[in-house]
Write a structure and sequence with these properties.
Blueprint (H helix, E strand, L loop, with lengths): L4 H6 L7 E4 L3 E5 L7 E7 L14 H17 L8 E3 L15 E5 L7
Antiparallel strand pairs: 1-2, 2-3, 3-5, 4-5
Bound molecules: guanosine-5'-monophosphate and zinc ion.
């Protein structure tokens, strides 16, 4: 079994509330939501962070943004918008070392 929590979620070894899945990407509800809608979008293949991403990762990372677009449309935020966050490294607040896009919607973020 993988040591990486999000690899285990991607392979369905660990449970998650999955909102979207294809061959390369899975999106699931954050267990501690920080907004009314809080979904994590991840490549199934392990990429630790933006800080270690390689040119061959660009395609799947771009497609994660299209999954965010799709979530926005399906959940009714296509007009109002939403926030996409990628915490990177210790000082960036990244706790899980498997790259993930936070999709946050339903509340206007504070500035900063
Ligand atoms: P980070 O701080 O690394 O950018 O974000 C990690 C996110 O993963 C946090 O928002 C946290 O709530 C979420 N998280 C941590 N453990 C789990 C889990 O086991 N399941 C789910 N669905 N989310 C998790
Ligand atoms: Zn992983």
């Amino acid at each position: 079994m993988s040591e990486c929590l999000f690899c285990r979620i991607a392979s369905r070894e660990s449970p998650a509330d999955v909102e979207y899945e294809d061959d390369e990407i899975v999106a699931f509800k954050d267990i501690y939501p920080k907004a009314p809608v809080h979904v994590l979008i991840i490549p199934k293949r392990h990429i630790a962070s933006v800080m270690t991403a390689e040119p061959e990762d660009v395609g799947v990372l771009g497609r994660c943004l299209l999954v965010a677009r799709r979530l926005g449309e399906v959940k009714g935020f296509a007009e109002r918008g939403y926030r996409i966050v990628v915490n990177s490294g210790v000082d960036g607040g990244q706790v899980v070392d498997h790259i993930h896009f936070h999709f946050l919607a339903g509340r206007r973020p504070s500035r900063g």
